[in-house]
Amino acid sequence: MISIKSEREIELLRIAGEITGDTHNYLKPFIKPGITTKELNDLAYNYIISRGATPSFKNYDGFPGSICTSINEEVVHGIPGKRKLKNGDIIKIDIGACYKGYHGDSAWTYPVGKISGRLEKLLTQTEEALFSGLSVIKEGTRIGDIGYTISEIAKKYHLGVVKELVGHGVGSSIHEEPDVPNYGKKNTGPILKEGMVIAVEPMLNLGTADVFMEEDNWTIITADEEPSAHFEHTVLVTKDGYEILTKR
Fold it and tell me: What distance in Å separates the CA atoms of residue 204 and residue 147, rounded to the nearest whole number?
């Protein structure tokens, strides 16, 4: 069931979202060649704890990390470890913070050192897809309108839209109803209402839209090993638009 959040819940979601966005800001200066994904994970863990929250992803369905760190062709759910970032990589960092039982959820794709022009375009275009999808949100919008808008941006730039992975509701669980796909038809799907909280998160690939799961049963990789980008915000649906809860 899709829930409408109370004022108390919205305030807690605002704080959780703020901590999530602030964790991204905190990590950004450390994203340089030579750092390991485990070091980024530990920095995020300590920062989230220092803010009176806990990492939403740690032990979620057995996930071992506090954040997801996905490099280059890794789309999502990369497990932090000993791998060092290299100049020219891109890394998707997905962060969730739980404050007094409520969650914030936001992913961003970062360049490591100097990246190629094609990767710069991928990041710019996927971020554009996120904000285009957000731009249609208000009371009365249908979920399909969000996915349609995102997929039109992907089509414009000839990017593959990952269909197996979708956005979602956010609240006292990190993943709630409704699903928010990055594709769809106008005027289809559940109707958004004031007080709903959803995460919108386009995952766009430079090549094929097809993906597969690695042997670790977490990391999702593009089938042709071309790079992928991922941008996500948690937002509150309002009567006339939306409020980003995971501001950076």
Answer: 12
Buried b (16+ CB within 10 A) or exposed e, 197-210: bbbbbbbbbbbebe
Is residue 3 within 8 Å of 55, Cβ to Cβ? Answer: no
Exposure pattern of 125-162 as b/e (b: 16+ CB <10 Å)?
bbbbbbbbbbebbebebbbbbbbbbbbebbeeeebbbb
Query: Distance between the two ends of the chain, CA-based, in angstroms?
Result: 30
pLDDT tens per residue across span 77-93: 999 999 999 999 999 99
Residue among 204, 203, 198 nearest 141 (CA): 198
Whole-Å CA distances, 107 to 92, 142, 157, 247: 7, 23, 21, 11
Those residues whose C-beta lies under 8 Å from the C-beta of residue 8, and which sit 6 or more positions away, are none
pTM, full prediction: 0.97
Cβ(144)–Cβ(182) under 8 Å? no
Sheet holding 228-230, edge to edge: 160-161, 203-205, 228-230
